[in-house]
Structure to design on (129 residues):
């Protein structure tokens, strides 16, 4: 599950499991504060469902009857696409909020990638922050 829901910031920050839980909780609060977020997630997941349904209809039109292993492959592909999409949505909409919370707690991390900068003002990848 850590692949699907990582911390989105430097793993080396001296934070306890409870600290990380609290950061996550506050980031979700911010996530819900933006009313677009639930709508974006629903639209993306609904679109994946519609496209998956269309793809399935198309495939059935070609091969006729679906055998059990056709369904199995379709289900696996569908779940993989869904998980990757959720991962992408989280990186896009949730990760910046988690980093914002960490920065508000006084940790100097890059807002773009979450890397700990310590005393530096520049991220090696993203420059000045
Ligand atoms: Zn960076």
């Amino acid at each position: 599950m850590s692949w699907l829901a990582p911390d989105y910031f430097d793993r080396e920050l001296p934070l306890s499991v409870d600290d990380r839980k609290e950061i996550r909780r506050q980031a979700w609060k911010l996530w819900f504060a933006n009313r677009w977020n639930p709508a974006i997630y629903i639209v993306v997941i609904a679109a994946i469902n519609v496209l998956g349904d269309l793809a399935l209809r198309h495939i059935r039109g070609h091969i006729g009857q679906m055998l059990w292993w056709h369904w199995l492959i379709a289900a696996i592909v569908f779940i993989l696409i869904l998980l990757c999409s959720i991962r992408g949505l989280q990186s896009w909409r949730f990760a910046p909020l988690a980093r914002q919370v960490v920065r508000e707690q006084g940790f100097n991390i890059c807002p773009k990638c979450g890397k700990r900068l310590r005393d530096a003002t520049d991220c090696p990848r993203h420059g000045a922050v």
In short: The chain has a mean pLDDT of 93.
